[in-house]
Every structure is written in C-alpha cells, then in structure tokens.
Amino acid sequence: MRWGDMDAYGHINNVQIVRMLEEARIAAFGPPRGAGQPGVDPQVSLFNDVPDGTMALVVDHRIRYVRTLEYRNIPAVVQVWIGAVKGASFDIHYLVLDPVTGEDCVKASSHLAFVDEATGRVQRLTPEQRQRLAPYVH
Amino acid sequence: MRWGDMDAYGHINNVQIVRMLEEARIAAFGPPRGAGQPGVDPQVSLFNDVPDGTMALVVDHRIRYVRTLEYRNIPAVVQVWIGAVKGASFDIHYLVLDPVTGEDCVKASSHLAFVDEATGRVQRLTPEQRQRLAPYVH
Amino acid sequence: MRWGDMDAYGHINNVQIVRMLEEARIAAFGPPRGAGQPGVDPQVSLFNDVPDGTMALVVDHRIRYVRTLEYRNIPAVVQVWIGAVKGASFDIHYLVLDPVTGEDCVKASSHLAFVDEATGRVQRLTPEQRQRLAPYVH
Amino acid sequence: MRWGDMDAYGHINNVQIVRMLEEARIAAFGPPRGAGQPGVDPQVSLFNDVPDGTMALVVDHRIRYVRTLEYRNIPAVVQVWIGAVKGASFDIHYLVLDPVTGEDCVKASSHLAFVDEATGRVQRLTPEQRQRLAPYVH
Q: How many Cα atoms occupy the beta-carbon half-sphere of B14 within 13 Å?
C-alpha cells in the first residue's frame, strides 16, 4: 500500500485496490512481457513467459469490497489462486486481508486471456501453461 | 482520458478505466460530500447532497472489458444509468464507448451504499433520493 | 481535476498536480506520438508532430506549491507558455490557478528534450519546431 | 516500482517517480499523521510524530531525470537524506538508482514545511525534530 493510494475519505481508494490486485497478480505470476528489464523470477512464470508479441488482457474484474482497507506502512496480505481454466482464458481469484487484524477486506476475481498483439486473436493456453497453473487451482 | 492513463501496452489501463467510471459517476451524480470546494451543480444531486458525515461507498464493481479502449485527446463517451434500487443501496451501470468509432469498450456496474462515517452503519435511501434516481432507472 | 486526485489530506495531491501539468502540456502542444489514436488537433502541433520513433522526455521539473489546490468539479485553470529555447531542448512554464478564486496555486516549469528512441540521442529542434514555439515564448 | 507506473513509452513515468519519492520519504521519515492505522515504526519518526492537526506540506519539488528508469520486478534503490534545515522548513534530497546496474536515474529534492491544518500557519521545527533530523543532514 502506498500512502497516495488513500483518497479524501482517508481509506485505500477502491480504484487503487484494483492496482493492488494487479501487483499481486504480477508478484505471483510474473510481469507482462514487453517493456521493463529483468528482476527476479516470479513464483510461477506465466505472464513473463509468453511468446513475443502476446499480451495478457483482463477480460473482466469482479471486486467485492467487504470491509474498508485501512492504510498501514506495512504490506497488505493478498492471497492469489487460480479458478476456472478454459481453453483460452482463466480466472485469478484474490483475497485482500488487513495485515494486522487478518480481516477480509476485498474478494475479487479477474478473467484473463492471452491475445496476439498484431492480430488481436485470443491464444489458446498451452499444455505447459496449464501445467504451471495446475498447483494453484482451487 | 489522460495520456498517463495508458500503460506499457499503449492502451488505457484497466485500472484507470475504473478511475474513469468514478469520474463518470461523479459527473452524473455529484462529487462525494466532504473534501473539496463548490464547483457546478451536477446533473443529479445525489452524492453531493447527503447528510454531513455520510460516505458513498462502493460495495462491488463488475467490469467487462469488451474491446481495448484507445487513448485519444478527446473525452471517451460514458453512458451512466441506474439499475436496481434496494432499501439501502443501488446499482450504477456504465457503458464506455470509443468517442470516434462509437464502439462499446467497457460494460460495468457498481453497487453503492451510503454509510455513516462515525458508526459504519448503512443508511437507508430516503424517499427524496429515490425520487431523484427514478428518472435514470433502466 | 479528478476526485481521485485528492489525497488523505483532502487536497489535490502534489503528485497528481504533476499529472495535471502533463495534461496541460499535452492540451497545448499535443499528445506524444506513438500509442493512441487520433482525436483533435492541439492548439500547437509539437509533441504529436515529431518524426516516428522520437520521444519527448522530461529532463527536469521545478514545481512550487504556492497555495493548496482545492478539488472542484470544474477544471482548474492552467496557463502554459514557453521559456528558454536551446539547441536541443526547451522549457515549458505553468501557472495553475483556482478556477473560482483565481488565486495562484502552483508555479512550475519543465525542461524537455526530444530523444531518438533507438539510439537514445537528443535531437536538435528543427527550424519549424522553433517557429511553432516562437509565439508562446515569454 | 509497480508495473502500472510505466507509461506508453514503456518506462517508469516521470509523474510516478514523484510518487516513488513520496514513498521513499515516508519509508524513511514515517507516514503523515491522520488517516491510516499503525504499522511499523519508521527509521526516523518525523511525519508520524507531529501534533494532531499538523500537516506536512510540500513547498516545492526539484526533480532531475538523469536517465530513464526501467521497470523491474524488484524495488528501485532510493537514497534519502536531509539538506538545509531552516526555522520552519527543511529539504529532503533523493537519489534514485537502478537496482541492478546501480546507475543514477533521478536526482531530486523537496522543500517541506509543517502547517497547522486549522489556521494554515507554518509551524517552527521543534528542537526535538531538529535533533532527529541531524544525523541525516549532508
């Protein structure tokens, strides 16, 4: 959480929570390929390990704000796992918890697809990608 | 749209689209009461016209990214209307269109509730609030 | 100004003011070439009219926050003009005013240069670019 | 660095670098008092340890972008120290380095003052505040 993620209500802003979900997704499954330079290997190499010119696009977000997330100068806890895996897309689920009280603050899911940048066509998940996701499916 | 709403893919970022939905909601139904100074009356006085100490909180967002929204230096078109109105909450629906091609880019809805800042209790919609929303229910 | 540009102090955040300066610069001198689709012609075609593969980079910002900028649901007034023009760079100056009281809130300048994306080399301003900037030099 | 801090040029955006400076300042000298809940003690208790109703306001920023900062999924290195300390204000200096190459990317300073929220009056630094800053003055 950044101090600047708070809005005039003095809580972490609902939009910035979507940014935090993005960061959690990237921490777990790697940064999108393309811009940027190497850092460390993510826990699961997924987004960083697609063919050149493939983009990971968000098809939808469903976000439920269960409890106001209060800013603290320590990281929020975000649990991330995989839901339904289809032919050419899959769901990522998130649970955001207050890092001190452990209370649920946000429950969310995103439906993602890999798309070819040049043609705009959706790319089927490869057997290897499915295998990497498998241990995290709940 | 701001140029800075684009991400490294060169499209309007999915998180920034949630910021645009917030702006569209505020343009239609007024800025949240509290911080800030007077500007112009919104089309419908709702968020700006709650009792002192009442916050408008987002309970959930559902956002479907139908088509990549491309940055242009002209405003995107966002249609906003009201869906279900319950005792103490209501839905706002949004349709974001490319301002040149008129193509649908984002379909979304937010469930909102009014909450008392001091007690955290949800506030029932008043008859007057319902009356103001009525013409925009579809 | 967006409502979300406020921080927990209930004022427009100093970082978001830098975003507003970017938007003012783009409104006056056009959006950077590259990503994005056509909209309207800017007042002065500068950033949008560089050779392919040329980036406009900020070399420095100097920003003086004279008075807190309060959020209003009407645009802030930003005056933009050109300062020193050198061989391969130039200054943009900004004055941000409260749109109701007319009070000065922010005085700033940015030093910008055009850089070739492939080689990283700074590009000299062309005679035509100088001519376009000339009427706005103060 | 967040992936979303990149702009359409594929670099960390100059505005988001100002956000990173804010985060570095807060990591070193504590989060502003007011909104938010307790986390950990900062290295130096300054912003978090002011009297109730006192705001830390940025008076100016000077930011020099020496080299493009590339996104990596590891933290950038930000060195933070104190410059001039005056009666009622002080300077924070920053040096942002690429975490892999160690190259200087951004050199910046911010002039800050403590202001009473109710009266708008600048507050003199207390002897204790000066003492806490002293070891970090260069």
A: 27
